[in-house]
Design a protein that fits this description.
Helix content is 41%, strand content 19%. It is of the alpha/beta class and 367 residues long. Helix 1 packs antiparallel against helix 2, helix 4 packs antiparallel against helix 5 and helix 5 packs across helix 6. This is Methylthioribose-1-phosphate isomerase.
C-alpha cells in the first residue's frame, strides 16, 4: 500500500539483507516512523509492545526473528531458545506458532552452516505468501461487496462496518478485512467504512482510519457501542472483521468487542463475514471458548489514553477514576453460529468443520 505516494510493506529487509525494518505502529496516528530490527530480542520486543501487531504480521516478524538467531548461532539449541522466546511474546494469535513451526521445519534438517541462508529465504517466502493470500481474500470479498452494490442505487455506497485493524498494517500488505474494501474502492464501487474506535488501544481510530484515509477510502470513525444502533437503522450493509485464531469448527477469536458486533448483526439481519487467511486456522482445537488462550494485557491500556493537544503535543493522560480496578482482556470469541461466512484465499467457506477441512485438507493433515 502507499503512504504519501510511496509503496510500503509493513516489514522488509534492509539493503544489507541481514536486518529488517518495520513501521512502528505504536506511533500512530500522530507519527509515521520506521524502526530497524537487528536481533531476536528486538523482534520479541517489537511483538510484545505491539510495534508490530495483527496475526499475519506477528507471524512474519517472528520468522525474521529466527533469521537473526541463525545468524548469531545456527545451533539447534539456539533455534529452540529463539522459538521459545518468540512464542512467549503473545499467546492468542496462532500465526505466531505457525510461522515458527514453518521456520523450524525448514532449517532444522540442514547442516548448521546452511541454516542462516535458508532461514532468510523462508522468511521472505512467508511474507510474499501473506501478500498473495491477502490479495486472494480481497478478490473473493470484492464479490460480496459487488453483489451488495448491485442491490443499491447507482451512487449509493456499500456501508461496511469493521472492528479493530485488519488492514495492511496488520499484515505484510493489503490486509484481510480491508482488502475487499480497497479493491472495491479501486474498481469504482462506492464504498464507505464505519470504523469502530476499538478501545482500549484504539486500533480502529488510530490505524484503520489512518490507512483508509491515505488510500482515499471514505470512512467515519464511530464509538464502539454505535455499531448496533447503525445496524438497527439500516446504515450497515455488511460487517467484515479479521481474526487472530479460528478453530476447526469455525469459532472466531478477534479483538475484544467483536462478539457484540456479531450478536447485533444477527439480530438485525446484517451479514457478518470474517476475513480468514489459512495460517490463522488452528485445526488442533475445536471449542474456541474453552481452548483459545485470551491475552490479558496491561490495565494501563484502559486507564490511560494518548492523544494530541490543540498545540500539537502528544501526551498520555489517565481517564479512569483513581483507585478503580481495571481488567483488559484483549480478545473475545465469536461462535461459528453467528458467522455468515469465512472469506479465505480459496473462496467463501462456511464456518463448519467439514467445510474448513474440505477447503484446507493439507492443514488438517498437518495438525
Amino acid at each position: 500500500m502507499k503512504v504519501n505516494g510511496k509503496s510500503y510493506r509493513t516489514i522488509w529487509p534492509t539493503k544489507t539483507g541481514r536486518t529488517v525494518e518495520i513501521i512502528d505502529q505504536t506511533r500512530f496516528p500522530h507519527a509515521f516512523e520506521i524502526v530497524e530490527l537487528r536481533s531476536v530480542a528486538d523482534v520479541a520486543r517489537a511483538i510484545k509492545t505491539m510495534q508490530v501487531r495483527g496475526a499475519p504480521l506477528i507471524g512474519a516478524t517472528a520468522a525474521y526473528g529466527v533469521c537473526f538467531a541463525m545468524d548469531a548461532d545456527p545451533s539447534e539449541q539456539a533455534l529452540d531458545d529463539a522459538c521459545a522466546a518468540l512464542l512467549a511474546t503473545r499467546p492468542t494469535a496462532v500465526n505466531l506458532r505457525w510461522a515458527l513451526d514453518v521456520m523450524r521445519r525448514a532449517v532444522l534438517p540442514l547442516h548448521p552452516d546452511l541454516r542462516s541462508e535458508k532461514a532468510w529465504q523462508v522468511a521472505a517466502r512467508i511474507c510474499d505468501e501473506d501478500v498473495a493470500i491477502n490479495m486472494a481474500i480481497g478478490m473473493h470479498g470484492l464479490e460480496i461487496i459487488r453483489r451488495i452494490a448491485e442491490t443499491k442505487g447507482p451512487n449509493a455506497p456499500v456501508n461496511v462496518l469493521t472492528h479493530c485493524n485488519a488492514g495492511w498494517l496488520a499484515t505484510v500488505d493489503w490486509g484481510t478485512a480491508t482488502a475487499p474494501v480497497y479493491m472495491a474502492h479501486d474498481s469504482g464501487i462506492p464504498v464507505h467504512v464505519w470504523v469502530d474506535e476499538t478501545r482500549p488501544r484504539n486500533q480502529g481510530a488510530f490505524l484503520t482510519a489512518w490507512e483508509l484515509g491515505h488510500h482515499g477510502v471514505p470512512h467515519t470513525v464511530i464509538a464502539d457501542n454505535a455499531g448496533g444502533h447503525l445496524m438497527q437503522h439500516g446504515e450497515v450493509d455488511v460487517v467484515i472483521v479479521g481474526t487472530d485464531r479460528t478453530t476447526a469448527n469455525g469459532d472466531v477469536c478477534n479483538k475484544i468487542g467483536t462478539y457484540l458486533k456479531a450478536l447485533a448483526a444477527r439480530d438485525c439481519g446484517v451479514p457478518f463475514y470474517v476475513a480468514l487467511p489459512s495460517p490463522t486456522i488452528d485445526f488442533t482445537i475445536s471449542d474456541g471458548l474453552v481452548d483459545i488462550p485470551i491475552e490479558e494485557r496491561s490495565g494501563s491500556e484502559v486507564s490511560h489514553i494518548t492523544g494530541r493537544t490543540g498545540a500539537g503535543e502528544v501526551h498520555t493522560v489517565e481517564i479512569v477514576a483513581a483507585g478503580s480496578n481495571v481488567a483488559n482482556p484483549a480478545f473475545d470469541v465469536t461462535p461459528a453460529r453467528l458467522v455468515t461466512g469465512l472469506i479465505t484465499e480459496r473462496g467463501i467457506v462456511e464456518p463448519t468443520r467439514a467445510a474448513l477441512a474440505a477447503a484446507f485438507p493439507e492443514r488438517v493433515a498437518g495438525a
